[in-house]
Structures are given as C-alpha cells and as structure tokens.
Amino acid sequence: MIRRLIYVKYVLTPFLLSPLFILFSILFQQAAIASPHSAPPLLQKARVCTKQLYESPAKKKYRHNWERCIRRYEKVYKSFPNTDEAARALFGAGELWAYLYRYSSRDSDIDRAISLYRELVKKYKDHNLADDAQYRLGEIFYRDKKDPMQAYVEFLKVEVKFPSGDARLKASKKMEELERVLGKKRIARETGRKAAAKKKKLVLVENIRHWSTPTYTRVVVDLEDQVTYKEHLLKKDPSLKKPRRLFVDLRNARIGKDIESSIPIKDGLLRRARAAQYNTKTVRVVLDIDDMESYKIFHLYDPFRIVVDVQGEDRQLRPERKGVAPGTPERHERPKDSQKGISLAKQLGLGVKRIIIDAGHGGKDPGAIGSNGVREKDVMLKLARLVADKVRGDLRCEVVLTRKSDVFLPLEDRTAIANMKKGDLFISLHTNAHRDRRISGVETYILNIALDEDAMNLAARENATSTKNIGDLQMILNDLMLNTKINESARLAEFVQKGLVRELRTRYKGVQNRGVRQAPFYVLIGAEMPAILVEVGYITNRIENKRLCTEAYLKRTASGIVKGIDSYIKDMGLAYKGG
Ligand SMILES: [Zn+2]
Q1: Ligand 1 centroid to residue 129 C-alpha, Å
Q2: Residue 14: is the preceding peptide bond cis (ω within 30°)?
Q3: What superfamily would CATH give domain 352-572?
Q4: Is the ipTM of this complex over 0.90?
Q5: What are φ and ψ of residue 245, in 5° steps?
Q6: Residues 462-485: tens digit of each pLDDT
Q7: What would the pLDDT profile of 487-533 be if each residue is shown by its tens digit?
Q8: In angstroms, what is the span from residue 557 Cα to ligand 1's centroid?
C-alpha cells in the first residue's frame, strides 16, 4: 500500500514539472484572461463568493454580503441569458435568497427566491436544474410559507412537468407526507367546525336537486354551510326486492321542512331519492339506483353543495385512448381510410350531432366586468347565440344552449344539462380578466390541475370561490377525472384555439395566442363528452374590451370557434352524415 502511494507520488511529480503541464496551465490562464467577462468565470466568482459567505458566520450576519453574491449571480443570468450558466446562476441566486430568509425573516426575500425559481422553471424548462427548482418551490411553500396546500401543488408540478426528472421520486414522497398532513389538518378543521356547530346550530339541508336519465344521474344537495359527509354503498337485496342503494350521511345537519322526504323519479337511473333526519345530528340522503356502473361524489363551494354523479351500466361504450398522461395533448392518428372511420363511428353511435353551447355566468352573476361597465354575461350570451347559428348553419349539427336569457344557472346544472341532453361536445364561453390591463389574448382550457398562478386565479374567479378552495379541489381532481374524455378534450381545445386565433388574425392586429391551458373548472367536472372552456379575450384590456363590444368581433369569434370544431370533426373522420 505504501509502495503504491510512493509510486503515485513519483509518477505525479514529473507530470507536474513537465512542459506539458506548464503548457496546460498557460492555456487555461490565457483562456481566462482572454474573456474575463464570459459566463463561466463570472459564475465561478459568484460561487466562490457564496462559499466564502457560507463558511463565515461573521459574514452571514450582514445583509450586504449576501446581496453581493446575489449580484454576482445576477450578472451571469442577465448578461448571458442564453447559456447553461444562466440557469445555474438563477438557481444559485434563488438558493441565496431562500437561505437569507432564514436569517432575515423578510417576506420579500423568500418571494425573490420564489420568482427566481419560477423563472428558471419557465425559461429553462429543459435544463437539468429545472425540476430541482420546481422541487425547491414545493419546499419553500411547505417549510417557509407554511402553506401545505400550495406546497402539494408545487410538488405535483414536479411530477406533471418533469416526469423523467430525478426530483420526481422525492417530490412524490413529499406529496405522500403532505397528504397525511393535510388529512390531519382537515380533521382538525372539521373537529373545530364540529365544536362550533355544537355551540351554534345544525347546518340546514336546504334543497335536493336532481337530473336523471336511464344512463346518467346527478344529485346535488344544497347546504347553508360546510358539513362533513361520508358515503356508503349497499348491495342489492333481492330478498327484500330492494335496488342498490347509495347513501350519504351529512353530519351536524338538519333537514329543511320544505324538502320532500321521498322524491320519486320515473324513467331514470335513479328510482328515488330520499332524505331524512337519521338521528339528532345526521341527515341521511338515500339514492335508490338501478344498474349503477360507477359513481363520484364531491363538493363545491360558495355556496357549499355536495354533488353525486352516477353512471349507469348501459352507457354506450365510447372508447377513449389510454396511456397518455393527463394534460398532454395527444397527436391524433387520422384513420387511413376515412370511410372506415365513419362507418366505425356509426357502429359505435359516435359522431358529432349535438353540441352544447354554454354562455358563461348570467342573472345575479355578471362574470368579469370591464372598466366601461361591460359585463361578461351579456357579451357571452350574444356570442353563444352567434355560435349556435353558425353551428346549425355550417355544421348542420343540433345545438343546445344552457341558457337563452339573462338567468342565473349554477355551474353544476350546466354540466348536468349537457349530460342529460347527451351532447357530443360541450363548449363553455367566457371572457378573461387580469389586474394587469396590458394582458390580452385568447386561451382555451381543459379540465385538469392548474399549473400556474394565472390559471389558479382564473379557476377561482370562474368558479366564484377562493384559490384556497381551488387548492382543495386540485387534490381530488384526479379521482374526478376518471372516465372523462381528457385526450379528446385536449384535441378539441387545440383545434378550437387554432381556428379562433387564425380567424381573428384575418381581421384584427396583435391577437395573442395564449395557447391551450388547463385548470379545475367546476363547469367541466363530470362532463361525459369532450369539454372545453374558451376565454375569447380580456375584458380588462382596453383594445379587446372595445372589440368585444362590437358585433363584428363576436361574429369573427363565433366563426373561428366553429371552424375549429369543424376541423376537429373532420380530423376525427367522424362527421355525422345524417341517418
Ligand atoms: Zn367567466
């Protein structure tokens, strides 16, 4: 062993003294001298600065020492934005801000870290530090911001955006941990609420609404406040001639006097709905169901309501391609023989013959309002009518409008109508709004978790609830999306977005294509057909607001949407040819 070490020493020494080594050192130094302001040496300087800072407790006490190193990183990513070093510098600076926050406790410090990590994820999404930056965002929301719900979303983004990144495994571990934390929190919150309920009064069950066909049922229980609930499924009991029953127990609730104890429903999947005070603090809602295939139960906020969706066994088998991650629009393979496509479509009872057009908002809900007082609900009703005319005229399809006048219609009713009417496509029409009035453009959304703050805020606004409640919804969305047509919706969204932007650009300047996006919209949950939500412009943007007030722009918009639908249908080769 010793002999070997000596040997190494003797071998190395001649190399160190060799002309070759000297040549190497000169070349290296010259390279450094030749471009002292290239990205690598600058990044190196920033790193040395950081190392010295971390090693010195004395230096760490003074803010200016931190800021000096941060500035060095800043120089790299600002001067050389298109280099590998820029991404590394962003990461380094983000790390410094986050670390500094532990000393300073200044919110602005942690916010700087967040914005740098976000910038890295956005601008350098293919860099091998992008997934690590996304992971760090999760950690910041978890440890520093103490916002486990947002942390969960950030970790989820690691999985969604970087499925093959090395941060994925640790992100999913964090999500598991957070699920436990959030579960406990929920229990704590519920017990808190329980205690409050004990002191106060029981929550009133105000109404039970239902939609039912032989294949589809939606039941909505309206409550005056939040309650906890639990569902139970009872098997069919042939000896008692009882159908399968699904019952939901609502805790700390009392039943309203106006509610009928038994609601008979004929010709539906649901035979009967019953509601009764089960004991002093529990209301039991029982659904007698024939031939149930599956069900989903979830709640919506503001006002609090519980929704039960039941699918029947004899639903038409509508194939949805599998094996594609949610949210990744899939390339559609055109059938080689389009005639074959049509006949197959007919065999399966497919094809687009009925389109549901949903004009956003209405009645007491004006939607977004422009600075000139223009209301989203009015503009969208006009647009919905124009789209309907064009669909009938150009596509020869039937149209169902969810609302034909200025009336209020809850979001879950709109989806129920679409399912009841067996629409083949569902299109919800909206205008966007933003605090920053400069922002403009067209976006098309599909149902999925929101991946950025803007999408989160939009979903909160369109759902008329808080972003906190959206966070809650994001956690259960995966379950709610089972059996929904994610891929077909994404394809429809791509076509409509493209058709809309192309058509608007033939007449208008500066139309921003903001692309196909995703967010958890209440109105899209449970739709049994491809379903999208189109944001046809920003009512808060001066130019788009002006345009939205003209018939010409709305006509152009309607034409673009219908052209998009037409391309979608043609691409599928499933155009309905009558009979
Ligand atoms: Zn809207």
Answers
A1: 37
A2: no
A3: Zn-dependent exopeptidases (3.40.630.40)
A4: yes
A5: -125, 140
A6: 998 888 888 778 877 877 887 778
A7: 899 999 999 999 999 999 999 999 999 999 999 999 999 999 999 99
A8: 16
